[in-house]
Amino acid sequence: MNIPNLLTILRIFLVPIYLLIFFSDLENRFFLAGLVFILAGISDVLDGSIARKYNLITKLGIVLDPIADKMMIFAVLISYTIEKIIPSWILIAIGVKEIVMILGGGILYLYKGKQVVPSNIYGKTATVSFYAATLSIVFKISTKLSEVLFIITVILNILAFINYLKIYISKRNNIEEIS
């Protein structure tokens, strides 16, 4: 088990910690949960950077990294929706996209020769936008700005999904041609 994979596993463990703090009775629970979210974001950047710099990219990391990302995204979206911080349509829009990507990724991996769609600039941009929108709430920046950032995040997620779909279809078709 290498350091990038350990950092990814740490991110997975941070999800329930985030939720426990977010739904606790602590006085600054949203801010403290936000700090856990920030720690998860830092570990996400670190694991990718270390893996690329030291050629420590593994199949396990390629599979676990997006799972860790999606777990934290769902934790934040669901918790923010429950607390009425964001409208439910944001959870639905991003949630549907994430679920379809999980299913598509699982199909490629399990049934199409262990193919994986790697992260790309579209997904990374959508993730950065999600972090910006979330942090605007954690640090209590303007409500209007937070709303705009979440709308931008939804749009970027839709664009990332369209790009993912093109890659998925191409990989699926290439595998079928070989079979």
Describe the overall structure.
- It contains 6 helices and no strands.
- It is mostly helical.
- It has one domain (3-178): CDP-alcohol phosphotransferase transmembrane (TM) domain (Four Helix Bundle (Hemerythrin (Met), subunit A), Up-down Bundle).
Low-confidence stretches: none
User: How many H/I helices?
Assistant: 6
Going by CATH, what is the homologous superfamily?
A: CDP-alcohol phosphotransferase transmembrane (TM) domain
CATH class: Mainly Alpha
Helix content: over 70%
Total number of distinct structural domains: 1
Q: Please report the distance between the alpha carbons of the first and last residues.
A: 33 Å
H and E order: HHHHHH
Largest sheet: none
Quaternary assembly: single chain
Average of pLDDT: 91
E-strand count: 0
List the helices and strands and how they pair.
Blueprint: H1 3-22, H2 29-53, H3 59-82, H4 88-111, H5 121-138, H6 143-178
Helix pairs in contact: 1-2, 1-3, 2-5, 3-4, 4-6, 5-6
Task: Give short descriptive properties of this protein.
179 residues, CDP-OH_PTrfase_TM_dom, CDP-diacylglycerol-glycerol-3-phosphate 3-phosphatidyltransferase activity, 82% helix, mainly alpha, phospholipid biosynthesis, 0% strand, 6 helices, Four Helix Bundle (Hemerythrin (Met), subunit A)
